[in-house]
């Protein structure tokens, strides 16, 4: 008798075979070998399939799931979450203009307007699948429509914060809005707070609107039709073919009766809001559609009085309280976050994980590789996308970084990094685990073994992190340490890890590719497994019994096998001619054929049917019982979901702080001092990216002070410069610094480095400087880089104008403006006039003047008196050494990159041209023309003067002409001309 492993396409087979040569013939040898097969099973559906090549039950692998991004607004303090929308962009340290309430007099509203109408605040919010959140809301009492810059990587918490910040009466959402996010907008939920219910306010009504109302194109058309700001617009407009045919002349009429093109209206709109925030613009369209519907329901068609209801008089941008306003232009200009094409072809695809891009040379790119956990990388990106203006939040991060950078804490940092590297995002894990509890469909699958391993490892490493913080000396005051001590419950975390370890056998689970329960967990399960393990000896006996009924002349190998869901079977070689088994049982009791393969036919007889009835589908019973136990374990672990997710979020914060701390150590950064004073005092500032690509970088200082603002008298200044922002020698600290000087001298790098230092300070990071006192800044806006694209029907100069328009409209005394060579994209006279007008306008704001750093080559605006001296205006330049004795133009200039106070009158453009390879005859000619222009000479007359070569050519031509007139023409004129011209 020969016992061997049976083969089949399905099931796991424990097989026994017997070679019989007649009845009662005994086998000369006996060998038993247990086969291994595969079974398919679902955590939700207990129908398990198997293959004979693997005897173990395999739990199907959990597909990759991209969870909804959950953001936590750590930048908003408790007081900020209850603020009402102000009439100006939200600035923490600027006293907002009081909101108009129904009880206040309003001359511009009809007397019949009801209090209920004036109390309405209509909010529209939308979130795209990849987490981009847009929001717009309308305040009837202010007749104002607010826009938000699109926020990437948002989530339910962000939307809930928006709802709390705006406190709407009506919430408009898309009909395809995610159900998880809708929970944050539950109309039955009231604003959180203390006191009686009167202060909570009525719950907001929620309305799901069709997706078409959130369309970007239709929303942009509705906004254009508002015709805001026409009375202040130009009297000359540009027309393109089709403007009057595409729309009626009435739709194109401007406020003064002039005809304005559709393109002109769109350009005007771009000066008020960021039209690139497509999600927010779509939300604004939903708000306008709501207002239109309400007007139509209240008034008859054509009623002029309908225009007075929910009238929109102005539009503004807003940002969340506690967050700095930074738009896409600023992020691009300063290289805060910058993606580039991924060189690996396998990373090209539509999904976010393989979108074909990677982080390039950027400020965020210097830190994100230092984050170890997936949730930490995500939170770190949110830090850089939403810098905080909450001094408490910023100082908490700075305190933690300072503490970790101490020499005595080096070991703790290494321990934290090691433990964080093995931690997964528990929010994602819990989502997958909960799917296993609640899923009922056939597509639902069992959580993979990696989920349980991830939870167990998280519990272990979380305890290690807690022990690490407990062992730190002198860190009792750290906020992040106190969070760990409060939320990392040691007993519960140990219970989670213990429960998983005691139930799941990870070694067998890895070998069998499914979740296997340890022995000793369940008595019935252990009995089933022992019975299953003992089937081989039983199959040996059955195979011997069956072999006795097979004729000896067939010389067949008889296999007795077991398949899950099918039961016990007899496998006998197949006759290739008939397609049946070579033996199908006795004539009086034929076997029942079940199925065939290429080599074997499988049958059931009375013996195996009896075994089926006695043992049943024992393998399925084992799998079912293990699934029940795993299900109970999952329910138990989900009881600790809040503990695990909160601990995971804290691990993300720790990971971010560790990344910032490691970055500070790697890049030689120092801690900034955040102050309520509206100043920037930077000593030894550096450009954190530029210094990575040059051999040596020269640091420079900066001293700026913004306007005192409306509430300056109520502020207590803590800076050494005093309440009037004066230096030690009594001079006023400037609000605007205009940098002049040669090209390539470092002006643009200097402007960007100041903005980057301010940005990094509000992220909560150390900054590249020797010392930095940073006043809280609500916005950073730039006019540095021009984002040109063929998809934008705008010139480069038009884009520049839109950038400066948005900056002027949104800037407050707490803002920082970076203006680099504004006006260079048009005629030099127009550009100089625009630049001078912008600078004068900002200086004339007085106490509302923001902090401005600018660079320009328009020296005529100073020399001609277009920009007069001002106590808030200062000049600077970068030092260069000039060697006029040098014969080569490109050797006349040596850049020292040292910032000096005062104005430089020469841009040395010809020298820069020579350095870039422009031919010397061009640069020499340009140098002569520059000197003539500087002396005020007529360039037309100068250009009419002939050069030496041109004079020589003219003299030769004159001699030839004279000889021609005196020439004696012979019979052959051609020969005479050739002789005159010297042609042979």
Architecture overview:
A seven-stranded mixed beta sheet has the order 11-23-24-25-21-26-27, with helices on both faces. It has a six-stranded mixed beta sheet with strand order 9-8-5-6-7-10, sandwiched between helices. Among the domains are: 112-228 and 272-321, 2-Layer Sandwich (Nucleotidyltransferase, domain 5), CATH 3.30.420; 328-344 and 355-513 and 634-666, MutS, DNA mismatch repair protein, Chain A, domain 3, CATH 1.10.1420.10; 673-878, 3-Layer(aba) Sandwich (Rossmann fold); 948-981. It is of the alpha/beta class.
Mean pLDDT: 74
Q: Any low-confidence stretches, pLDDT <50, length ≥5?
A: 1-114, 187-202, 243-259, 350-354, 438-445, 711-723
Helical amount: 25-40%
In percent terms, what proportion of residues is strand?
Answer: 5-15%
Q: Can you list the strand order of the major beta sheet? A: 11-23-24-25-21-26-27
Q: Give the beta-strand count.
A: 27
Shape annotation:
elongated
Assign the structural class, choosing from mainly alpha, mainly beta, alpha/beta, alpha+beta, or little secondary structure: alpha/beta
CATH topology of one domain: the name is MutS, DNA mismatch repair protein, Chain A, domain 3
Biggest pleated-sheet summary: 7 strands, mixed
How many separate helices? Answer: 31
| CATH class call of one domain | Mainly Alpha
From the N-terminal CA to the C-terminal CA, the straight-line distance is 117 Å
The radius of gyration over CA amounts to: 40 Å
Which oligomeric form is depicted?
Answer: single chain
CATH architectural label of one domain = Orthogonal Bundle
